[in-house]
Amino acid sequence: MERYRRNFNTLSPVEQVILSNSRVAVIGLGGLGGGVVEMLARIGVGTLVLMDGDLFETSNLNRQILATEALVGHSKAGAARDRVRAINTTVQVTAFHNFLDSENADATVRGCDLVIDCLDSIEARFLLEDACRRAEIPLVSGAIAGTLGQVITIFPQDPGLKLIYGDRSSPRADGVEKEVGNLSYTPMFVAAIETSEAVKVLLNRGELLRNRLLIVDLMALSFDLVELT
Amino acid sequence: MIEIEVRLFATLVKYIPKESDTFKLPDKTTIAGLLAKLNIPEEETKLIFVNGKKEHLEYEVQNRDRVGIFPPVGGG
Questions:
Q1: Which of A137, A164, A183, B51 has the smallest C-beta neighbourhood within 10 Å, fewest atoms?
Q2: With an 8 Å Cβ cutoff, is A121 touching chain B?
Q3: Would you call B56 an interface residue with chain A, using a CB distance cutoff of 8 Å?
Q4: What is the ipTM of this complex?
Q5: pLDDT truncated to tens, each residue of chain B (76 aa)?
Q6: pTM of the predicted model, to two decimals?
Q7: B75 vs A contacts (CB less than 8 Å)
Q8: B71 at A interface, C-beta within 8 A
Q9: Residue in B36, B35, B38, B31 with CA at minimum distance from that of residue B61
């Protein structure tokens, strides 16, 4: 376990084994997803199921860790799979070059211990949440805009995203990221919090963002833990 | 009259009032009334929180409440 020596003793050897026996899906492989995949692979989550139907664009280079100039025009799913293989060959990785939709969502999350929402649309997040609820799998959901980030951890019995975005009858707005963009450090910061939540769920340890939304505004240097229920 | 702290996030900052730390309101103003006073369209907001807790539009603001008004954030 020389690879994981520096995980100890914050993690125990038993916990390291739990992580290596865990199966986690990461949906969305852009700014958030690239960071989450990097950190989950390094900490030793044993099986990763990755999904994104996108190809890299030049505008991704400002913030997406998987994006290199050479990979513009190439598949994010392929890049994520290659990155995992480059940093941790002990991780089993399957990468789907598809967008999440109502046809593939249930099959994608099936058998996972946890799912991480790194999507870039509010509609798709609800679709993923539904699939996780049907499969009774916890979901860590993060979102970003500009220098703003939010993270929540949703267990199947929790009310979930409607507490943040309103219920299905309310108009599903576009997120403000369309207007404010995303800086390089915002996705990495939120990805780290999502990864931290994931590890805590898998190890059943630590304080979770359940029924609470962490709102971080790095420009205003404000950190709010909002009780949602 | 009561005084509250108003915090606005992202695209909503354009609505920030002067003296947002000590924003004055008539007694029994609701969140909906606050949004109207600040000329914030309701559809631009998604989550309102007061003193760290989610509240609905009908909530009547109290003196020294810290009100956060948060837009939809969906980027990844």
A1: B51
A2: yes
A3: no
A4: 0.94
A5: 999 999 999 999 999 999 999 999 999 999 999 999 999 998 889 899 999 999 999 999 999 999 999 999 999 9
A6: 0.96
A7: 31, 120, 143-145, 175, 177, 182
A8: yes
A9: B31
CA distance A218 to chain B (A): 11
Q: Does residue B24 belong to the interface with chain A, where contact is any CB pair within 8 Å?
A: no
Q: What share of chain A is helix, strand, coil (3-state, %, to 5)?
A: 40, 25, 35
How close, in Å, is residue A107 to chain B by CA atoms? Answer: 22
Alpha-carbon distance of B56 to B31, in angstroms, equals 7
Going by C-alpha positions, the residue among A143, A140, A113, A145 that lies closest to residue A129 is: A140
CA dist., res. A222 & res. A210, Å (int): 20
Q: What size, in residues, is chain A?
A: 229
pLDDT tens column, A124-146: 999 999 999 999 999 999 999 99
Q: What is the 3-state secondary structure (H, E, C) of A155-222?
A: CCCCCCCHHHHCCCCCCCCCCCHHHHCECCHHHHHHHHHHHHHHHHHHHCCCCCCECEEEEEECCCCE
The Cα–Cα gap between A152 and A213 comes to 5
**Residue of chain A whose Cα is closest to the Cα of B11:** A176
Number of cross-chain residue pairs from A and B with Cβ atoms under 8 Å apart: 90
**A219 touches B: beta carbon within 8 Å:** no
Distance between CA atoms of residues A143 and A75, nearest Å: 22
CB contact under 8 A, A227 and B7: no
- Chain B residues near residue A161 by CB distance under 8 angstroms: none
Q: B13: burial class by Cβ within 10 Å (0-12, 13-18, 19+)?
A: middle
Cα(A212)–Cα(A163) distance, integer angstroms: 9
